[in-house]
Amino acid sequence: MNKLLLILFLAASLSAALVSCSKLDDFSDFDTISGTAEYAVPLVNTDISLGDLLKNFEENSSLTIDPDGTLRFNYSGDVITQNSSFIFAAIQHTLSQFPIIPITSQRMALPFSSPGGLDLDRIDCKAGTVAYYFANPHPESVTATMTFPDVKRNGQPLRFIVTLPGYSGTGDLPFSTNILFPASVNGYTITSETDSIYIEYEAIRAGGISDTLANVLVSIQNLEFTYAEGYLGNFVHEGGRDTILIDFFDNWIRGDVYFEDPTVTFNIENSFGIPTRSIVNVFNVITVNGEVLPLQSSYVTDGIDFPYPAINEVGQVKSDRFVFNKNNSNIDVILGAGPIAVDYDVNALTNPDNNAGIRGFITDESYYRVRVEVELPLFGRASGFVAQDTIDINFGDLSTVDFAEFKLFTENELPLDIDLQAYFIDDNGAVLDSLLASPQRVVQGAPVNAQGIATTKVTRSTLIPFDAARFERVKTARRVVINAAFSTINNGTVSIKALAQQNIKIKLGAKLGMNR
Fold first, then answer.
1. pLDDT in tens, 300-330
2. To 5 degrees, how large is the angle CA 106–CA 153–CA 101?
């Protein structure tokens, strides 16, 4: 709220006035109002809308304006960002457990278990290799054929055919292998009507007799996929814990602010063809008073279902928004209590209902993302909200000035009362004097209609005299500590709307005098 303090609470105006007085040796440009060396000095004359005032004033937020002019602060952060690598990595992990697979029968299922209960109908490969090894124990030559009937490209299965010479009876068995130049499976599709992927081999001896071989081995390495289809398992995906900082209350000292209709929105994008549901582990709002308030909603307990493309919508991204509001949660209570941070930990669960009858898909470009957005509309009420800021000042060459009187004029379209006090501090941190005898209302709130919208503007004038003794006392000040207390009209009992087009006009002048 620094900029809001400096301008809306007149801190900038006052500091500009004090600092601008640092070059007053020559009074020729000022109006003489008295024969005893008194000069009228115009210091500030500004007319600014609330929308212009608040533009880009928060580093980690954005400001939006509703069609009716209501201002909203938006704070956002990523909750979950996942791509398809986690499922493909799970498949690859199972394959890596069997670097070399002995083939012990002429037809056998490869010993791959589906991770997380995956039941895949189809996988498209973009990388990976297959190597074989045959050894012939027979005295006749043998023609060996190895076939992967479930792995096809252009309708043809992956197949290897080799001829091995007969075994002489001594030394090593004749063998054949492509281990140095394994075959690529790029462009092959793996499909199966069962839960297994099969491998077949046959060995035909020179006389036409079908037989077996001494050793048949296969190695499948470094598979990568572009597409997978089927039941893609029940996985929990860690979203990670994060915090959204809300710096609206950075300068808060005390008092209450209540936002009338705050929201938290989950913005969801998903190109996975898989049912997915959120798991909210933690969602707490931390308040200016140090309270930790949990979000309560049936949608926290039961989760939020993500939209997802159907199996005939491969490549499409489905989007949706889920809004926690005061009708489906306690968000108005926890965000209406002066939030300074939102602490969250949200995971995602695929196939949450374990329905294997739902056949889904993923591609190597699939992803899902959930972005959390906190919205605080400037619609609510405040009571005794006090914010504080400190600014540096330097009176410079004011040795020729003996006394001063500041006149502040405000014309306000905001339904907001502002009381101001400031303290002059020297280099040692001692308080030299205060700006006012006591906190004083310098801005009067405008009256509102039943919708909380101001109906007219209100003016107010304030005189701030500094006699010779007080002025001499504050000349050594190096800082001004400003306390600004604001309340919505009727002492914070009425909720009001702050609109972008509402203006506040500030005029500040000084009458400077010399006794010599």
1. 999 999 999 999 999 999 999 999 999 999 9
2. 35
How many CA atoms lie within 13 Å of 421's alpha carbon, on the beta-carbon side?
12
Is the CB of residue 402 less than 8 Å from the CB of residue 461? no
Q: CA-CA distance, 161 to 170, in Å (whole number)?
A: 25
The full 3-state SS of 417-457, as one line of letters, equals EEEEEEEEECCCCCEEEECCCCCEEEECCCCECCCCCECCC
Q: For residue 280, what are the β-bridge partners?
A: 346
Q: Is the pLDDT of residue 345 over 70?
A: yes
Assess contact for 407 and 463: CB atoms under 8 A: yes
**What does R_g of the chain's alpha carbons equal in angstroms?**
38
pLDDT in tens, 259-271: 778 899 999 999 9
Listed in sequence order, the residues at least 6 apart from 20 whose beta carbon sits closer than 8 Å to its beta carbon are 41, 43
Are β-strands 183-184 and 107-109 bridged in parallel, bridged antiparallel, or unpaired?
unpaired
| C-alpha–C-alpha distance, residues 255 and 217, integer Å | 77
Sheet holding 31-34, edge to edge: 31-34, 38-49, 503-513, 403-412, 458-466
Q: What angle do CA 96, 196, 89 make, to 5 degrees?
A: 35
Give the amino acid at 317: V
CA-closest candidate to residue 87, choices 269, 241, 224, 270: 224
In the chain, the N- to C-terminal Cα span, in Å, equals: 43
Q: Tokens 């500009």, residue?
A: 16
Q: How far is CA 426 from CA 156, 272, 393, 401, in A?
A: 89, 63, 10, 19
Instruction: Name the 3-class secondary structure at 5.
Output: helix
